[in-house]
Amino acid sequence: MEQQKVYWLNGTDMTLEELERIVQGVWQVGVSPEVWAKVEASRQHIERCIAEKQVVYGVTTGFGKLADVPIQQEDVARLQVNLIRSHAMGVGDSFPVDVVRALLVLRTNALVKGFSGIRRETLQLLVDCINRRVHPVIPSQGSLGASGDLAPLAHMALVLMGEGQAEYQGVVMDGAAALQKAGLQPVQLTAKEGLALINGTQAMTAVGALATLEARRLGLAADAALALTMEALGGITDAFLPELHSTRPYPEQAEVAQRILGLLSGSRLTTHQGEVRVQDAYSLRCAPQVHGASWQAVHYVEDKLAIEMNAVTDNPIVLPDGRILSGGHFHGQPMALAFDFLKLAVAEWANISERRTERLVNPQLSNLPAFLAGEAGLESGFMIIQYVAAALVSENKVLAHPASVDSIPSSANQEDHVSMGTIAARQVRQMVHNSARVVAIELIAATRALLMNRCQEQMAPATLRILEFVTEHVPFRLADSSYSAEIEKLAEVLLSTPIPMAHSSFQEGI
């Protein structure tokens, strides 16, 4: 049996692709000796400050508004245990396993940087939980996104203490039982460790990172759906020519236009300017501008995630020279703004996709059969599939309201500005999933239109491959029937598997 690859955490250069492989269980994680040396040096500074009875936030003081309350030396360990128990107040549905795994990986990656003062044995238990698939049950609601994701991360830390609940081998059980079944022992937290575990942005970053990975695939699926719809409607390809897009040189816009021209290469279904009509509707003609702008937002978020995934996000920070400084690295505003931006991008992919679906089913907007029905009147065909897309688009518009513009003071006004970044992250992932359903609907409708007219021999090789991909998951049938299960299935596939393109160059922009 081939040995599983180990990804060596160092807190400096983890990518989205690497995170995804670890989350999926393709790779395990490890910590190299030079990284352990930094972790242990950081811990020594904490031990020194306790021995010297220094006043350090969260180590020899209380938390939040209670930062001015001194803690006796004999109580510093008890302080950390109380912190975890009192902060594990999350509510609502639990995060799915992929989010929990991403959260564990990202928190560990931040701690290995050696600025948090955690002990080796505590950090090792985090690593072991990732590799042995002990997944804390973490409620998804209750974080303000500053001081970090306190409630979600406290539920994670409970399991390390042998408390709370965890999922192991598909069964939810007590944290202590999950550790025992995995051959692990809980830890007794000591000074600074509870704070080191929960003061960070890893819940919002985990959700947002997974949403961004899915958004990349969604964007490619939206481009593929556009290409199929172009053929189904006899769209004009002149609007995608590079000499046109060079005059407004947004790289992502040009990439989308190039991708669509590549997908449509060899098609005998598309048209040129003036052959049938002079211009197409905006949902076809302006798609490079709209899709391209959404890709711009994705790239912005990717840049911010590259920083956040490899950053120190707790407080206080233990510097290599021994100073322990209080600051605000736990504040999620950089990610809150990024995820709110991504929400707009995702919403627009769905908005314009739904408009193209409308053109496919509305007989006043095309020469296709009304609602793509076999016997219009007796059958309703795809009348309601457009309703579903419209409902999802409308739901996205509600979710797209920026979470980051809200702030409610907490901890007796000591923490008087918070990011709501975890809400933004949860919203954007829901919007990605909604939008995948909308794009799946366009793909299904365009495929139906092309098959009804027996257009396969006139299609471009690349779009024919996309059509075959769709029909593998959604078999063609003309009679009225429910497509709910197929829409869900295709949407899930679009988010987990890059839609097949004719050439690897069409993957540009992801």
From TrEMBL:
Identify the Gene3D superfamilies for this entry.
Fumarase/aspartase (Central domain), Fumarase/aspartase (N-terminal domain)
The places in or outside the cell where this protein is found are: Cytoplasm
Q: How is it modified after translation?
A: Contains an active site 4-methylidene-imidazol-5-one (MIO), which is formed autocatalytically by cyclization and dehydration of residues Ala-Ser-Gly.
Q: Which CDD domains match?
A: PAL-HAL (cd00332)
Identify the enzyme class: lyase
Q: Which family does it belong to?
A: Belongs to the PAL/histidase family.
Q: Which HAMAP family match?
A: His_ammonia_lyase
Instruction: Give the protein's recorded name.
Output: Histidine ammonia-lyase
- Please tell me the species this chain comes from: Alicyclobacillus tolerans
* Designated gene of the protein: hutH
